[in-house]
Design brief:
Blueprint: H1 8-28, H2 36-53, E1 58-60, H3 61-87, E2 96-101, H4 108-119, E3 123-129, E4 132-137, H5 144-158, E5 170-172
Antiparallel strand pairs: 1-5, 2-4, 3-4
Helix pairs in contact: 1-2, 3-5, 4-5
Amino acid sequence: MKNIQIGTRFLFVLSKRMFLFFIIWIILTDGDISSLWIGIPAVLLSSIISLILVPPVFWNFTAFLKFIPFYLIRSLLGGFDVMLRVFHPALPINPGLLKYQLHLPKGVQQDMIVNVLNLLPGTLSVEIENNLLLIHVLDIGKNIKQEVLLIEDYINEIFSKKTNTQGSSNEKI
C-alpha cells in the first residue's frame, strides 16, 4: 500500500469511497435491505482494494465542472460528424493512425485522456508507449492534435494543485 498513509485523511477518503460504493450497491439491488449481509463486506473490501489500486489523487472540482460542457459539446459535434460521414453517399473517411506526444504524467491523468478520447466519436486510443499515444482517427486530415492538446489542457487543469478561482472545491478521491 504505497502512497497511502494511515491517518485522518486516509479514513476520510476511505469513508467517501465506502459511501459511494454503498450508494452503488443500493442502486444495483433496488434498495433491498436483505442484501446488506453481503453488501457491507463487499463495499468495505472494494473500498480498500480501490485505495490500493487507485491511490487518492488531488483534483479540482471546479475545473472538472468546466470540462463537462466542453466534453458534451465535442461529443455531440463528433457524433454529428461521424453520422454525416456514414450517411454520405461517397463515405468520406480517411482513416489513419496519429502519434501524439503526451505531456501529462503517467497514472490517472493519462488514463483519463485515453478514456476521453475513446468516448469521443471518430477517435480511438490504440496504445501508450513512452508517453507516445497512438490514436486511430476517422479522418487523418482533421487537426486532431489540436483537439488532443485542448483535452490535455483541461485534464491538466483538473489535476493541477494551482487554483485560479476563489472558493473552488478541491478534493482527494
